[in-house]
């Protein structure tokens, strides 16, 4: 039920748009400013702190308090399960336009990192029966770089699990990423006019600033 989940500090500034529910886990400090739009409900764990919204904020589903410890534990467990999967394809650092083609079933992709700039793209191509689980180090997208899907592949069937030294996910400028993102031990930052289409879990911190869009699935 949660489109964006953070287990650490959350900072939302400017005029970003989150099309779904935002969940703030136990112990997380909340900072909001500007005119953010949350198309669902803002769910705060009773042990989170801060959370005062500016008058210009719009939260369509209202604000509720709810114990989110189990939700955070489940997301960390999901990431650990992905880490134990045997890869079906292995890549080094993905730093230029690359296409990954599915096998018609479960695809477990291992990559050192995904770092794209300019107009470079990572294209994930599959059919209706394909599912992609992508284990990678840090993801950094800038400029108009993008991670996109082709064929009949749905965003709900693509999952990025980010781990390892310096793990994190950063999107700036007009970059775009399609697929859900789990970062259990690192930060997530979506800035400028970047766009994410998928569920997001930030284990350490979440920064959403400027006018980006997070469209949850």
Walk me through the structure.
- The chain is built from 1 helix and 28 strands.
- It is mainly beta and 217 residues long.
Task: Give keywords.
217 residues; mainly beta; ten-stranded parallel β-sheet; nine-stranded parallel β-sheet; globular
Number of strands: 28
Number of helices: 1
* Biggest sheet record: 10 strands, parallel
Mean pLDDT: 97
The helix content is under 10%
- Going by helix content, strand content and strand pairing, the class is mainly beta
Strand arrangement within the widest β-sheet reads 10-7-4-1-26-23-20-17-14-11
Radius of gyration: 17 Å
Tell me the span between the first and last alpha carbons.
Answer: 10 Å
Estimate what percentage of residues fall within beta strands: over 45%
Q: Which outline best applies?
A: globular
Poorly predicted runs are: none
The H/E string reads EEEEEEEEEEHEEEEEEEEEEEEEEEEEE
């Amino acid at each position: 039920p949660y489109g964006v989940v953070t287990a650490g500090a959350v900072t939302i500034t400017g005029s970003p748009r989150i099309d779904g529910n935002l969940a703030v886990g136990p112990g997380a400090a909340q900072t909001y400013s500007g005119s953010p739009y949350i198309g669902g409900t803002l769910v705060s764990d009773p042990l989170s702190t801060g959370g005062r919204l500016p008058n210009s904020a719009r939260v369509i589903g209202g604000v509720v308090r709810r114990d989110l410890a189990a939700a955070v534990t489940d997301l960390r467990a999901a990431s650990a399960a992905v880490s134990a999967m045997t890869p079906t394809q292995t890549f080094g650092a993905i730093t230029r336009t690359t296409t990954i083609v599915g096998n018609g079933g479960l695809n477990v992709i291992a990559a050192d990192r995904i770092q794209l700039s300019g107009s470079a793209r990572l294209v994930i191509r599959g059919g209706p029966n394909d599912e992609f689980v992508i284990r990678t180090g840090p993801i950094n997208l800038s400029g108009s770089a993008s991670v996109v899907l082709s064929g009949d592949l749905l965003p709900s069937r693509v999952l990025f699990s980010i781990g390892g030294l310096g793990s994190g996910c950063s999107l700036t400028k007009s970059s775009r990423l399609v697929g859900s993102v789990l970062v259990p031990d690192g930060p997530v930052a979506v800035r400028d006019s970047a766009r994410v289409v998928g569920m997001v879990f930030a284990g350490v911190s979440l920064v959403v600033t400027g006018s980006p869009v997070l469209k949850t699935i």
